[in-house]
Amino acid sequence: MSSGLVWLTILVLSVFVGIEVISKVSSTLHTPLMSGANAIHGVILIGAVLVAGSATSTPVLVLALIAVLLAAINISGGFVVTDRMLRMFVRRRPELPGPGQET
Amino acid sequence: MTTPTWAQLAYLVAAVCFILALKGLSSPRTARRGNLVGAVGAVLALVTVFVAGFAFGTLRHLVPILVALVIGLAVGAVGARRVKMTQMPQLVALFNGVGGGAAAIVAVIEVGELLGREAGPGRLVALVAGGFTIVVGSVSLSGSVVTFAKLQELMTTRPVVFPGYRPVYAPALVVTVVCTVLLVVRPSLWLALVLVALGLLLGVLLVLPVGGADVPIVISLLNAFTGLTVAASGYVLGNTLLLVAGTLVGAAGTLLTLLMARAMGRSVANTLFGALSGTSTLG
User: Fold this and answer.
1) Contact criterion met (CB below 8 Å) for B70 and B42
2) Residues in B touching A18 (Cβ below 8 Å)
3) What band does A88 get if pLDDT is binned at 50, 70 and 90?
4) pLDDT attached to residue A89
5) Considering B22, B48, B82, which residue would you say is the last residue of a domain?
6) Is residue B31 domain-shared with residue B152, that is, in the same domain?
7) Domain range spanning residue B14?
8) Which of A21, A52, A70 is facing B19, going by the closest CB pair?
9) Among A31, B116, B228, B277, which is most exposed with the fewest C-beta within 10 angstroms?
10) ipTM of the predicted structure?
C-alpha cells in the first residue's frame, strides 16, 4: 500500500472514531466537550516544535517560536479551563435543592 | 522528517489518550477523568518530541524553543485559572484562535520548505494541505478574536451587516479559492502571505453577522476548523499524531456544532447566514 493510501486510511478511520466517541454526549456537557476538544487540537504544538527545531534562518525561527508560544497557550489553557468548568459542573449537582430540603 | 519507531509508538499512545479523553468528556461521570487523560496524552507527546529530537540531534535551537514553550504554557494556565467563570466561553474562543494561528504559521513555514522540493504528487498534496491550513487557520484566528470581542462586549453583540457586505463577502471567497489553487500550481511565499490576509478577512466577515446568543455555536464550528487544519499539518509534517488528533477534533467538533445548534433550536446555516438573508439571528 502506498504511503498516501495509508494516510487516507488513517484520516477516514479517525473521522468515524471522532463522530462515534461523542455521539452520545449529554447536552449539559456540550461546552466542556468543546473546550476539551479545543485543548486537544493544541497538539499542533508538536508541529510548531518540529519546524522551530529545523529552522535554518532567523525569520523562520522567530515565526516558528511564535507558533510554539501560541500553541502552548492553546494546549495548557485548554486543559486547565476545561477542568475548571467540569469542577464547577460536578460541584453544582449536590447543591441542587432535593426534596424536603430548604433553599 | 524521520521519526524513530519508539517515538511513533509513543505518539500512538498519545492518540489513544485523546480518543479516550473525548469519550470520557461525553459522560458526566467520567468527564473530569477524560480531560485528565487528554492532558496526559499531551504531556506524553511533548516529552516524546523533545526526547526524540534530542537523542537524534534533529532538534536545534533547544533553548529558545524551551523558553517560548514555558512562557506559553504559563500564560495559558494562569489565564485559565484567573478568568472569571462567566468569561470562560470567550477564553475558550481565544485559545481556539491562537491554536488556529499557530497552525497557519506552521503551514506558511512548510510551504516555504516545499518550494525547494522536487515537484511530484507528494508535494502537490502537501501544498493543497498547506494552502488549506493557511486559509482556515487564519479564518479561525480572526473569527475567534471577533467572537471574543462580542462575548467580552468590546463590540456590539448584535449581528453586524454593513452595506456592501455581500458584495465583499462573495468575491473575497472566490479570490481566496483562486489564490489557493494558484499556490498549489505555482507556489510562492508571497502568495502564502496573501492567503493569510484573505483568511483573516474571511474570518471577520464570517463571524460579524452572528448574533451574541449564537456565538457558542460559531466557537464550536471554528474549533472544528482548527482541528482540520491540525490534521492537514500532520500530513504536511509527516506526523500521524497531528493527523489523528486533528481529524478527531474536526469530526467530533462538526458533530458537536450540529448537536449544539439542534439543542438551541437553530440551524447552523441560519446561525451563520441568517442576518445576511434578512431572517435575523438571535441578538
Assistant:
1) no
2) 22, 247-252, 255
3) confident
4) 76
5) B82
6) no
7) 1-82
8) A21
9) B116
10) 0.94
